[in-house]
Amino acid sequence: MYVIGVMFKQKSVFVLIKQIRPVYLIIIAHGRVMSMGVDVVIPTFRREKELKRCLAALEEQTVRPNSIEVVDDSESDRGPAYSRNKGLRRGVSEIVAFTDDDCVPSKTWIEDILREMADGSNAIEGGVTTVDENGEVVRMDPKPRDSWNRFKTANMAFRRDVLEEVGGFDERYFIHREDTDLAWRVLNSGYNIKWCPDCIVHHPDRFGVERFALESELLLYRCDPKKYVEIAAGTISFRTISDGTWKKLRVGMRSHQGKVKSLTRLESVSLWLRATIKSISRKLM
C-alpha cells in the first residue's frame, strides 16, 4: 500500500491509500486515524502449520487487508477473547474482520466484506464450510430458524466503532462462546448483523466438533437468559440424551463452582423447560 494524496479539510486530514484495488480513504480526525479498509485479526495457539495455511490464503486475496494482526497466545494462554482484543487494539481500519488460525478464507473474502458492508451494515456474519467424514465439502450455516444460536468469529466482521462502543470481547470467556456473547451485545446495543452466506471461510478441521465449557455457558446465560433458551434447545438431541452430554450440561450449570454464579433451581427448571419445549416444537414442525 502507498500514499497517493493528502487533503486537508477543517480539522480532519484525508489521506488516499491505494491497495491492489480499490482506492480507500483514511480519515485523521482529532488526532485519530481511521482507514476504510479491513484489518484482519487472527488469534493463534500452537498451530504453526495451520496458521501458515491461513496466512497463505490471505496473501492470495483479490483485495488485500490493510493489516493482518496475528496474536500468539501460546505462552500466556489467556484465551482467544484476550487475543482478539489485543489484535483489535493494534489496527486502525474502520472494519475489523475475524477468523481463526485453522481457517482458510476464500480468495474474495476481503472484497466480499467490503462489498457487503458498503451499505452501512454495522457487522456481517459470513458463511463457513468444512469437510465431512466422507471428505466432502459441506456448509456449516446456522439453522434457518436460529436467531441467536450462531455468530462464529471464524468469519465475522464489525465496524471498529461498534466494537469499541460495546467494549470488545469479554475476556472472562477463556474458551468458547465469546463470539456469540459479543454478537448479542452488539445486537442488544441496537446495531445490526447482516447474514452474508456468499462471504466464505473454509474451516477444514471443524466437522463434528462440539464443545461445552461450563464457565462460558454460564457467562452467556447471564449475558441474555432469553436468548440463551435457543442455545440450550440446540443442545438437546437423542444423541446428547443417550450419551449423557445433556445431563452433564444441565447438572454442571446448576452445580458449577467458579467465578460465574451457577443457576438457581428456579433458573434451571425455567431454562430447560423452555428449551425442551422449543426443541420438541422444532422437531415436529
Topology-level CATH name of the largest domain: Spore Coat Polysaccharide Biosynthesis Protein SpsA, Chain A
Low-pLDDT ranges = 1-34
**Average pLDDT, to the nearest integer?**
86
The main β sheet shows up as: 11 strands, mixed
Order of helices and strands: EEEEHEHEEHEEEHHEHHHHH
Total strand count, please? Answer: 11
Oligomeric state = single chain
Provide the CATH superfamily of the largest domain. Answer: Spore Coat Polysaccharide Biosynthesis Protein SpsA, Chain A
Head-to-tail CA distance between termini: 53 Å
Shape: globular
Number of DSSP helical runs: 10
* Overall radius of gyration: 20 Å
Helix content: 25-40%
Integer tally of domains: 2
Give the DSSP E fraction (strand runs of 2 or more residues).
25-35%
Quick overview of this protein structure:
The chain has 285 residues and is an alpha+beta fold. The protein contains ten helices and eleven strands.
Word description of this protein:
The protein has 285 residues and is an alpha+beta fold. The protein has two domains: 34-209, Spore Coat Polysaccharide Biosynthesis Protein SpsA, Chain A (Alpha-Beta Complex); 211-285, no CATH class. Helices cover 37% and strands 26% of the residues. The chain has helices spanning 48-59, 80-90, 109-117, 160-166, 178-188, 214-223, 225-234, 238-242, 245-255, 265-284; strands at residues 2-9, 12-18, 23-29, 32-44, 67-72, 93-98, 104-105, 123-131, 137-139, 156-159, 194-202. Strands 1, 2, 3, 4, 5, 6, 7, 8, 9, 10 and 11 form an eleven-stranded mixed β-sheet that branches. Helix 7 packs across helix 10 (265-284). It is globular, with a radius of gyration of 20 Å. The N and C termini lie far apart (53 Å).
